[in-house]
Amino acid sequence: MLPPAKISGTTLEKTVIADGCIINASRIEHSVIGIRSRIGYGSTVVSCYIMGSDYYETIDDINQDQNKGVPPIGIGKRCYLRNCIIDKNCRIGDDVRLNGGPHLANTETDLYVIKEGIIVTKKGAVFPNGYVV
């Protein structure tokens, strides 16, 4: 059994949020936020499905990751996500922009696939700070 979601300072519109989430985003609309999702301050999520994570990271795990330059599981600060499917256990750093839409061609990389304008991240993908699609 998980605790209820913790949401601070976030405008929600037509959004479903699962248990155990920690959300400090600026705005979330037309989205589904999965179990144990973490979304940082100032982030915007529009028309996305975020699957969440299989486990919580401890404070020690987060500190060790930061020392290695790896973002914690979840979505970092000041991110912008639109038309995305974020698979489980993804690590999205600060200031990342994943802006899906018809302007993007179908493609596949090590981190994500774009199909009909929708960005689909691969399970456990790590997007460093400032990454842009």
Automatic annotation (TrEMBL):
Top-level taxon: Bacteria
Keyword Zinc-finger among UniProt keywords: no
Organism expressing this protein natively: Niabella ginsengisoli
PANTHER family, A to Z: GLUCOSE-1-PHOSPHATE ADENYLYLTRANSFERASE LARGE SUBUNIT 1, CHLOROPLASTIC-RELATED, GLUCOSE-1-PHOSPHATE ADENYLYLTRANSFERASE-RELATED
Family: Belongs to the bacterial/plant glucose-1-phosphate adenylyltransferase family.
Protein name: Glucose-1-phosphate adenylyltransferase
Keywords for this protein: Nucleotide-binding, Nucleotidyltransferase, Transferase
Pfam families, A to Z: LbH_GLGC (PF25247)
Phylogenetic classification of the source organism: Bacteria, Pseudomonadati, Bacteroidota, Chitinophagia, Chitinophagales
Record flagged with keyword Lyase: no
